[in-house]
């Protein structure tokens, strides 16, 4: 049963919080009759009658969602004129909250409490962008309990000034915003974030005020985890080893000079280090001494897919991260004398040894 906080009464919009019973309310979109629900412990709302279809107001909403929308309306009010449930007929969408800002693009707030597919987030985001509206995806308790991983990042991570790549959450009980910011992946494939709780919009605008923790990588633990994954036949790790076998190398024998503390966008799947290992193993297993740009490009993409890399998220792509990774690896290999550039190609000077090789 589709629900909403705003309805029409005699041609004028009215908020359920100020609505009276026994009036002829109707849906702002489909013009069908809606009923006011107003209990002692229930957030007031309007609802379509059972079995009535509506093109935009198509889902029922939880009390968390209804309460959260009102709280977010208050949180963002210093940014401009805030209204609830703005209907955008041109793109057949409804923003949970709408912030009209003077001389700046409007903000559409999507308070997401229920499951949603990446394709739906992408479609709604592109719809707002088509109207030159910036959407804020703010996540409810369902998402706040999830472990940080690609599933969340792919759909909802966006860049905000002062916070880097981040995820926004709203806690209805605490009436506060949580921001998981400066999201990145270390070379071993671990995801990292810094969590900050915000009391008001001013703190969101100000950005992060604290130094980020120093990155420490535990290589022995990483090797132990890889050995365990091989023993238990974890598919993601076996896929990497299957590519390494024809080159004569083993995943546990990655050379120390490939180790790096470089951080990346969280797109490298099993991690930048294994991508570098795959690249190097395949480069120096080629039956030629000169490597073309086309061959290099092919291996970059192939290795990225093998480590389970993610090419595209709703808000960003892996293109820049892959380009930086390629440049860094080539600089290391040339600096150590394994490769040298020849015009737009590379010449193999000598082949590197892996751990355990004589």
Estimate the strand proportion. 15-25%
Cα-based radius of gyration, to the nearest Å? 26 Å
Largest sheet: 8 strands, mixed
- Classify the secondary structure makeup into a structural class: alpha+beta
Spans with pLDDT under 50 lasting ≥5 residues?
Answer: none
* Tally of individual domains: 3
Number of helices: 10
CATH topology tier name of the largest domain: Trna Endonuclease, Chain: A, domain 1
Shape: elongated
Number of strands: 16
First-last Cα distance: 71 Å
Give the second-level CATH assignment, the architecture of the largest domain.
3-Layer(aba) Sandwich
Q: Could you estimate the helical fraction of the residues in percent?
A: 25-40%
CATH domain class of the largest domain: Alpha Beta
SSE run = EEEEEHEEEHEHHEEEEHHHHEHHEE
Mean pLDDT across the residues is: 90
Domain Competence protein CoiA-like N-terminal: 22-57
Domain Competence protein CoiA nuclease-like: 61-185
InterPro entries: CoiA-like_N, CoiA_nuc
Pfam family, one: CoiA_nuc
List the helices and strands and how they pair.
Elements: E1 3-4, E2 6-9, E3 12-15, E4 34-37, E5 45-48, H1 63-75, E6 81-88, E7 93-100, E8 107-112, H2 118-130, E9 134-139, H3 141-144, H4 150-156, E10 158-160, E11 164-171, E12 176-185, E13 191-198, H5 201-206, H6 219-231, H7 235-244, H8 272-283, E14 290-291, H9 293-306, H10 319-335, E15 339-342, E16 345-348
Parallel strand pairs: 8-9, 9-11
Antiparallel strand pairs: 1-5, 2-3, 4-5, 6-7, 7-8, 10-11, 11-12, 12-13, 14-16, 15-16
Helix pairs in contact: 8-9
């Amino acid at each position: 049963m589709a629900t909403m906080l705003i309805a029409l009464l005699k041609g004028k919009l009215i908020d359920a919080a100020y609505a009276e019973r026994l009036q002829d309310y109707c849906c702002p979109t489909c013009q069908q009759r809606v009923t006011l629900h107003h209990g002692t412990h229930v957030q007031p709302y309007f609802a379509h009658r059972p079995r009535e279809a509506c093109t935009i107001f198509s889902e029922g909403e939880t009390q968390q969602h209804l309460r959260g929308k009102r709280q977010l309306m208050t949180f963002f009010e210093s940014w401009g004129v805030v209204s609830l449930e703005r209907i955008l007929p041109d793109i057949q969408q409804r923003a949970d909250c709408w912030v009209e800002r003077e001389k700046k693009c409007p903000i559409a707030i999507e308070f997401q409490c229920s499951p949603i597919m990446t394709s739906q987030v992408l479609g709604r985001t592109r719809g707002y962008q088509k109207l030159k509206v910036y959407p804020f995806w703010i996540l409810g308790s369902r998402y706040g309990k999830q472990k940080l991983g690609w599933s969340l990042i792919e759909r909802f991570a966006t860049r905000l000034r002062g916070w880097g790549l981040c995820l926004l959450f709203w806690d209805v009980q605490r009436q506060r915003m949580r921001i998981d910011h400066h999201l990145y992946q270390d070379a071993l494939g671990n995801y990292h974030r810094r969590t900050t709780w915000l009391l008001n919009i001013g703190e969101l605008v100000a950005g992060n005020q604290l130094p980020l923790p120093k990155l420490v990588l535990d290589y022995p633990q990483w090797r132990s985890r890889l050995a365990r994954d091989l023993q238990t036949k974890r598919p993601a790790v076996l896929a990497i080893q299957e590519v390494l076998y024809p080159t004569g190398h083993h995943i546990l024998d990655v050379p120390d000079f490939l180790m790096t503390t470089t951080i990346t966008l969280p797109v490298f799947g099993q991690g930048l280090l294994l991508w570098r290992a795959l690249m190097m193993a395949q480069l120096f297993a080629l039956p030629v001494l000169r490597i073309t740009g086309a061959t290099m490009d092919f291996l970059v993409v192939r290795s990225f897919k093998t480590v389970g890399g993610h090419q595209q998220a709703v808000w960003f792509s892996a293109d820049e991260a892959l380009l930086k990774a390629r440049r860094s690896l080539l600089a290391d290999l040339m600096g150590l004398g394994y490769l040298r550039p020849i015009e737009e190609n590379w010449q193999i000077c000598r082949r590197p040894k892996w751990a355990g090789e004589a």
